[in-house]
Design goal:
mainly alpha, 69% helix, endoplasmic reticulum, alpha-1,4-mannosyltransferase activity, membrane, GPI-anchor biosynthesis, glycosyltransferase
Length: 470
């Protein structure tokens, strides 16, 4: 075991010595190569590289150019903004949309880098300020200085670089964006909301600036909800982070919800303003069809195509009798949503009250939402994989061996599901029960991993060199 560990640490140290700009350039080249390779696979392989959603959105863009609604394209159920972004596919080059999504893939990494570096530096500065004050030298503190030890493996700069590289070199995220999936676009605005809320906490000395940052966070959050409905479930964690009261009981929770402070009201105002304006604009342009396809459809959706969800087989077997499809709908919906809602409430209250734990709260909520959802595809994994780098440095209780084991388990059971899915879709084998079984096992594995992550989550420790301070 010593050999692989030594090799791992050598590779890690070598990667951390490379400038972040070089990592960005290399990641861009990797994504360009994947897009070029994708064209070859689309032409010659049995399994196409390009995401079917990319084709649907491109058709929606074509309808836009003709002056029609993108929703005239059957199965178009996305924001019209995506169709607008893919207009270059029609007028310039069919792969342009993939380059646009790959750009947002890189922007996500930049945001991860900035958030992790600033957050660790902020915590480090607070620790230094407390130490200087303790020794009667508080006047020597300067917020303009970088107190992080740049030679340390755990310095803010190196940790931020490692966190961003976790996203940049993740094969799953790189492949999904270059296949033409727009989830990196929505993930950018989710993380940008997080950045603005955390940034606002650093402006406690300037109330006006803090309120503007919170308002901007609300605007971005509303736009993120417009793009994808799932960021709506992050709202409670954002709301609790801005509270000056600590929630320890149901009574405390109700008090915080019913009597919000000015910052919480500003966040709500920004979110509603953004969401209503964008939704109102597209409602005026495309009417009720936009409301149904982009929003309401996802609440009544019953996808019987094979997917990772625990509930896939139940939905498939229930789809045969259309006469009774509506009778168990209410109870079935309640039973599938209740565990998810309770877990999201628990995670939002447990980790969403503090700025330091907010990134993990959002990650855990996204992870739970995807795991318990009635429809789960590979693209949904981006929803939480984009947030995981923001908190990977906080799993101090997990060794390298444990991390590798959990990630390996996650990949193996994902692969075990993909085998019967391939046999069904491309070989026409009847593997529905096999897929249902693998979906159930994958559900258990995901819950096991989330439990281990929660169990091993902790704050980031800092090693302060007193000689450098004095």
């Amino acid at each position: 075991m010593g050999g692989p560990l030594v090799l791992y640490h050598r590779i890690k140290e070598h990667l951390l010595t490379i400038t972040f700009r070089s990592h960005i350039i290399l990641s861009i080249l990797i994504r360009i190569c994947l897009i070029i390779y994708g064209q070859f696979q689309d032409k010659h392989a049995e399994v196409p590289y390009t995401d079917v959603d990319y084709i649907v959105v491109t058709d929606g863009a074509r309808q836009m150019l003709l002056g029609n609604s993108p929703f005239r394209r059957h199965t178009y159920r996305y924001s019209p903004i995506l169709a607008f972004m893919q207009i270059p596919n029609v007028v310039v080059y069919n792969e342009m949309g993939k380059f646009i999504y790959a750009c947002f893939d890189i922007l996500v990494a930049l945001l991860i880098y900035v958030i992790v570096r600033n957050e660790l530096q902020s915590q480090c500065n607070k620790a230094v300020k407390c130490l200087l004050t303790k020794y009667g030298r508080g006047s020597q503190f300067s917020s303009k200085l970088n107190y992080g030890d740049s030679d340390s493996r755990n310095s803010p700069e190196k940790v931020a670089k490692a966190s961003a590289c976790f996203w940049l070199y993740n094969p799953l995220t790189a492949v999904i964006s270059t296949r033409g999936n727009g989830d990196s676009f929505s993930s950018f605005f989710v993380i940008f909301t997080l950045y603005l809320i955390i940034k606002s906490d650093d402006c406690s000395n300037s109330v006006r600036k803090r309120n503007w940052l919170i308002f901007a966070a609300g605007l971005v959050h509303g736009f993120a909800i417009h793009l994808r409905l799932y960021p709506l479930l992050f709202s409670l964690a954002y709301f609790l982070t801005l509270s000056s009261r600590l929630v320890k009981s149901i009574k405390d929770f109700m008090r915080v919800v019913l009597f919000p402070n000015i910052q919480q009201l500003i966040l709500i105002l920004g979110t509603l303003l953004s969401l209503v304006l964008v939704t109102g604009l597209f409602y005026r342009l495309y009417g009720w069809q936009y409301i149904y396809e982009a929003y309401l459809y996802h609440f009544v959706r019953k996808d019987i195509r094979h997917n990772f969800s625990l509930y896939f087989l139940m939905q498939y077997l229930g789809s045969g009798d259309s006469g009774q499809a509506m009778s168990p709908g209410g109870l079935q919906k309640l039973l599938t949503l209740l565990p998810q809602i309770l877990l999201i409430l628990y995670l939002s209250i447990g980790f969403g009250q503090f700025r330091q734990t907010l990134p993990f709260a959002i990650f855990a909520v996204a992870y739970t939402m995807v795991t318990f959802n009635t429809v789960v595809t590979s693209q949904y994994f981006i929803w939480y994989l984009a947030l995981l780098p923001l908190c990977i440095n906080n799993f101090h209780g997990m060794s390298l061996r444990q991390c590798s084991m959990y990630f390996g388990i996650w990949l193996v059971f994902q692969g075990l599901w993909l085998l019967p899915a391939y046999l069904l879709e491309f070989k026409s084998w009847n593997t529905f029960y096999w897929i249902g079984l693998q979906g159930g096992v994958f559900f258990v594995v995901n819950n096991f991993i989330l439990g281990r992550l929660i169990e091993n989550y902790s704050f980031t420790p800092f090693k302060i060199n007193l000689k450098k301070l004095f």
